[in-house]
Design brief:
Layout: E1 6-10, H1 16-25, E2 31-35, H2 47-63, E3 68-71, H3 74-86, E4 92-93, H4 96-106, E5 111-116, H5 118-123, H6 125-133, E6 138-143, H7 147-153, H8 159-174, E7 179-183, H9 191-198, E8 203-205, H10 207-221, E9 234-238, H11 242-253, E10 260-262
Parallel strand pairs: 1-2, 1-3, 2-9, 3-4, 5-6, 5-7, 7-8, 9-10
Helix pairs in contact: 1-10, 2-3, 4-6, 4-10, 8-9
Length: 265
């Protein structure tokens, strides 16, 4: 059981931000990654569609005999995490609670911004979770639907990325936030542009590291940390366009991510 892989699911390439942190914190662990690139983005879709897609992704990862699944997608975590966890015989973790904890710890003036997909923002999942941790914190949310296609296209630091980010972020800057949560796993790939616009006075929170810490804790508590000293294996699956996934993903991971297997759900 200890040597079984960790499953990581995302609507596309963004979940690699979480996979990267898991690789750094738990270098011995095997990982199976599935990006549903044929149906990205999830953030503008209905809750019913998101739930169906996420359930199919979960079932695929369970078919790979994983010991734990990370839903490395804020939209999925906000929409149907409880349903997914109830249908799985292995732990299923999301990214919202780790991100909310990090934001609540980071803020100094109790004014936190959250940027995410339309579905994540409409769910108000971050507001509820942060308020439960500290009722004094005011949360200001903004949907940034164009960020996901920018990342999927690999437009990470060009003029289009900068102009789009500036338009989205200006209303949050007017709220005098001191902490900004990247509430979509695609968004850390735009972190240099976001930090440039927000300035040094704003702490940008990437939930990926906190999520990796939670993975470590769950596996440790269950005595499921891999003990084999052989090199860890990282396997990648997508539902479409493996060439684009490899091109953008390798830039971020700074390592080859081939072979990439294409599956049809």
């Amino acid at each position: 059981m200890r040597n079984k892989p960790i499953g990581v699911f995302d609507s596309g390439i963004g979940g690699l931000t979480v996979a990267k942190e898991i690789m750094k914190l738990l270098p011995k662990e095997n990982i199976v990654y599935f990006g549903d690139t044929a149906r990205v983005p999830y953030g503008s879709k209905s809750p019913e569609a998101i739930t169906q897609f996420a359930c199919e992704g979960l079932q695929f990862l369970l078919s790979q005999d994983v010991k734990l699944v990370v839903m490395a997608c804020n939209t999925v975590s906000a929409t149907c995490l409880d349903k997914l966890a109830a249908s799985s015989d292995v732990p299923v973790l999301g990214v919202i609670e780790p991100g909310a904890r990090a934001a609540a710890s980071a803020t100094r003036n109790n004014r936190v911004g959250v940027i995410g997909t339309e579905r994540t923002v409409k769910s108000r999942a971050y507001e509820r979770t942060i308020s439960a941790l500290n009722g004094q914190i005011s949360v200001f949310s903004k949907a940034c639907p164009l960020f996901v296609p920018l990342v999927e296209e690999g437009w990470l630091e060009n003029e289009a990325a900068y102009v789009t980010a500036k338009i989205y972020l200006e209303p949050l800057m007017e709220q005098e936030i001191d902490t900004l949560v990247l509430a979509c796993t695609h968004y850390p790939l735009l972190k240099p542009v976001i930090e440039q616009i927000m300035g040094q006075g704003v702490q940008v929170v990437d939930p990926a590291w906190e999520t990796a810490r939670e993975v470590w804790q769950v596996l440790k508590d269950a005595d499921l940390l891999r003990e084999d000293n052989s090199p860890a294996s990282h396997r990648y699956f997508v539902s479409d366009d493996p060439e684009k996934f490899a091109r953008v993903g390798e830039k971020f991971l700074n390592r080859p991510i081939e072979p990439i297997n294409v599956i049809r759900l």
